[in-house]
Write the structure tokens for this entry.
Amino acid sequence: MSNAPAHLDANAKPVATGWGLIAGNGRFPFLVLAGARQQGIDMAVIAIKEEASPELAASAKRIHWVSLGELSKAIELMHAEGVTQAVMAGQVKHNKIFSSIRPDWKLAKLLFSLTTKNTDALIGGVAKILEEENIHLVDSTLFLQPLVPAAGVLTKRAPSEQEAADIAYGLGIARKISAMDVGQTIVVSGQACVAVEAMEGTDEAIDRAARLTAGRASDKPLVVVKVSKPSQDMRFDVPVVGLSTIEHMKSAGATALAIDAGRTLLFDRTKLLEFADISGIAIQAFPPEVPAEPSAASAGSTKSAGTKSAGINKK
């Protein structure tokens, strides 16, 4: 499926200059850098001290470190580097966002103006400020399309009849939960909701489900359902599944995983699916309930022979 605007050329490549990366924790920033480099793009990196890996310094030619609340400094550095388009990649833990920030004047003004004190509102506000500074945040999967699965069964084994019933039940619940911005993952067993993700994240929600169902019957395995939000903004907070999630599932006795097609990143996709197959875990991607509607700006500036505007094809 394609979530790119219809007027954009799917065969186009992003322009090679003016790119920046705002880096949080995990492997996401490394993957974006590698994907951009494969397209001849050298990114200036703005790395968040409290989150980003020190190893980023070895992967980026141009890197600057800022604290979580230093929005003005980050913008100044991006202007100095000539950044006009930026990718936001890597998690910033929700509890840090609202408990550890020492905001500069620009971020403090934003925080004071927010009527809804949640992560989406805050990052959306940051995105708006960047736009006002002529720095356009783009779809964070732009350089990682091979890691975004299309709809279908991704593992050798499809979900069993029982797992499929749990998935169908779970998708209905998870979509309601995600629409309320509570969390995007739930864990189900026997068509009963065992755990709902909040600020702790997917892996910890799976671990909690295992603790809550310790000693359960073997014929009632856990099923994990992870969805996008109905109006998922692909510029940030994109649902991610990594190898660690599958490891937590195996440890918890979870046997199936459902995700949203076209809106979920599978880190280390090949290794992840191989490990899932070895562990007997079925993974299936389902069409999202509501198609994503990214703006033209979220697709990034592109160039293509014979066209005025172009974009990236999404699987």
